[in-house]
Write a structure and sequence with these properties.
The chain has about 110 residues and is of the alpha/beta class. It is built from 4 helices and 4 strands, in the order βαβαβαβα.
Length: about 110
C-alpha cells in the first residue's frame, strides 16, 4: 500500500503509475480535486484519490483516515512528491539554506 503526495502530476503521478503497475494499492493526494479524479481513473489497479493539502493537519488526518477505511492495514510506502518551494531560482541564498519559516510552511 503506497500513499503518494503530489500524485496528480509529474514525478508523483509517474511514481503512482509505477507502483500500480507493480501491483500495489495506491492512494494519491493533491490540492486539485478535479485533476486527481481524472488521473486516478488513468492509473491501473486499486487507486484512491484524496484532495488534500499536506501543509494542513486536518487534511492529513482525513487522508490517512480515508486510506485506512479503503484499504485497512498499514501503509508500506509514503512517497512525498509535493512542491512547496516558495523562493525563486534567483534566490541569493544557497539551496541548502532553508529558513525555519519556509520549512514549517512546507
Amino acid at each position: 500500500m503506497a500513499v503518494i503526495t503530489g500524485g496528480n502530476s509529474g514525478i508523483g503521478l509517474a511514481t503512482a503509475r509505477k507502483f500500480a503497475a507493480e501491483g500495489a494499492r495506491v492512494a494519491i493526494c493533491g490540492r486539485d480535486g478535479q485533476t486527481l479524479e481524472t488521473v486516478a481513473g488513468d492509473i491501473s489497479g486499486d487507486t484512491l484519490a484524496v484532495q488534500a493539502d499536506v501543509t494542513k493537519l486536518f487534511d492529513l488526518d482525513r487522508l490517512f483516515r480515508q486510506v485506512s477505511e479503503r484499504f485497512g492495514g498499514g501503509i508500506d510506502v509514503l512517497f512525498s512528491s509535493m512542491q512547496a518551494w516558495r523562493g525563486s531560482h534567483h534566490c541569493p541564498r544557497p539551496r541548502n539554506h532553508i529558513m525555519t519559516k519556509s520549512w514549517t510552511r512546507t
